[in-house]
Amino acid sequence: MSAPAVHRRPWWPQLTPVLALLVLIVTWFSHEHWLPLVVATAALIGAILAAVHHAEVVAHKVGEPFGSLVLAVAVTVIEVALIVLLMSGGGEGTSTYARDTVFAAVMITFNGIVGLSLLLGARKHHIVSFNASGTGSAVTTVIALAGVALVLPSFTTSAAGREYSTSQLAFAAVASLALYAAFVFTQTIRHRDFFLPVSSDETGQATGLLDLDEDGHADPPPAREAWLSLGLLVAALVSVVGLAKVLSPTIEDLVVDLGLPYAVVGVVIALFVLAPESIAAARNAARDRVQLSLNLAYGSAMASIGLTIPAVAVAMIWLSGPLELGLEPMQLVMFALTVVVTAFTVVQGRAYTLQGFVHLVLLGAWLFLTVQP
């Protein structure tokens, strides 16, 4: 009688974050030559893939919607550290770096991650279903956050340009934290069921909650493995942001050489930082769990604003120079279009391939107009 097969966990996710940290330490002080840059790029890609793996392990252990929240908050906390670090370095574009990076995160999540998730889910299953109540509340919260933090500074008159005065910035920081905390309480405690995957009939109408315990997936990992994955997830995300910082001078030089707007730097960094969430959302969509993909997308956008603005407001106590948070006219128009399209996408609680394609076209338009304003 043959022995039962033993399920072996892949070894590379455990090794990659450690190697990425070592590469980060080595290249942090010397990265002018092309070879360290190539190694840093390879380590960055490996850290992104490892972060996705460990985030899924942690999510499987804690359950939803806590799992989606773990990755969104973890990525955003490290993203905030990167923004403050780059702002403290001074130089061109410092005054608008926080705005450009946060707005890039909103556009990438609202149109990129959501569009890709809907496209993948609907391509395989023709129509995808999600809870319109939970998703709609998430979208509403992000719109309110973006309105307070990014839209209103373009129209206030207490400070010059697209800036908040000190008192206005303090209010925006407190309001952002309050909105984010209220949503997290709603998502994880008060109305948790609104953010769980739903089952549906052949027309895409939701028929109830999807049974996540009887879907054919492996049992949740033991606590020890989950804690190990949580530590490696943090290490991988630190590596992602640190290596992105190492590569940022090269990106900045390339942007200058090509004559592109400085906002492109924020877009590239945001693409790197949000890559783990993008991959995780795509995987969930392919498994007919678009609700989890939407949780990741809108949760990331919400955390990006709700945590970044308060952190930057505190950092401005010792950082010198202006802080421009207000969106420019093209950005305002793209945000307005995104809000309108998103409202029609989520209101029915189901979507087709077309909606995903529309969001991706908006993402492409924003990227093109950022490069060619």
UniProtKB/TrEMBL annotation:
The chain crosses the membrane at residues 12-29, 35-54, 66-89, 101-122, 134-155, 167-186, 226-247, 259-275, 296-318, 330-347, 354-371. It holds the Pfam family Na_Ca_ex. Keywords: Membrane, Transmembrane, Transmembrane helix. Its main location: membrane. InterPro entries: Alkaline_pH_Ca-Antiporter, NaCa_Exmemb. It comes from the Bacteria. The keyword Transmembrane helix applies. It is found in: Membrane. It is a multi-pass membrane protein. This is Sodium/calcium exchanger membrane region domain-containing protein. It comes from Kineosporia corallincola.
